[in-house]
Fold this protein.
Amino acid sequence: MATSWTATPFGKVLKLSVLLCMTTPALLQAQSITICTDRNYWYPYTYEEQNIAKGMHVDIVAKALSRLGYQPIFTPLPWKRCLQSIEVGLYNAILSASYKPERARYIHYPPDGGISKQSEWRVMQVEYVVVVSRRDPYEFDGNPATLPRPVMVPLGYSIADDLRELGIEAKTDPSTIRIMKELMQTQKGVVITPPMNAKALMDDPIISGSLRINHLPFTSKSYFLGFSKTKSNLNLPEMKRIWDEIAAVRNDQAFMAQLFQRYAVKADPNDEP
């Protein structure tokens, strides 16, 4: 009786090879993680350029996720909409969010997110400084009550909540460049923003020479990759593994030196004169 070729050793090997060729691409396909980011010009941490998420925080997280075999998909949004989108589960994760008890209702933070001033699992630690008109002699002395009014911050940023808790109602705007220009034009009040962001904006030819940064920082915050509690395709041990890898990337001195060199101070590419 004739034996089918598929029953021979060669036939079995060939059949197995065909099956592997058919299934391997699906098995090797990286798991995607959808991440919304801030589209505001929060240079050099997160910002949007031609509808593409950019910045040091984006690069750190992208490297960490790719090392672990994940495929990050970044979508820049207005920050307030990004927070709302995470709350209702439109994205798997958010970058970069500081810890707030209200946000912790719908965002998974690292274990020390609400405890440590400088979290082990932060993407980066970011200072905030006080920016004033160059003609204003004011210097921040550590007492928020002395801040000249209005105190201006980007819309949706946690620093506005911090000020509110201190009894200071901040003036907010979706655009950091707009509030910097307002400070330049009115020469009244202050803008509170990170120093590298302030320096980048002050390098803009329109603003250059009109503003200055106070010497004493206003505060310092840890910023995180947070995961949605509504739509998460990861379990807590997998999240912890990602936070560990983010810390490893952040502690890679050679990589971080390249990042700081890459994001040398520059003006907002989306700004219009």
In short: The longest strand covers residues 124-133. Residues 9-28 form the longest helix (20 residues). Helices lie at 9-28, 56-67, 79-88, 158-165, 176-186, 195-202, 236-250, 253-262.
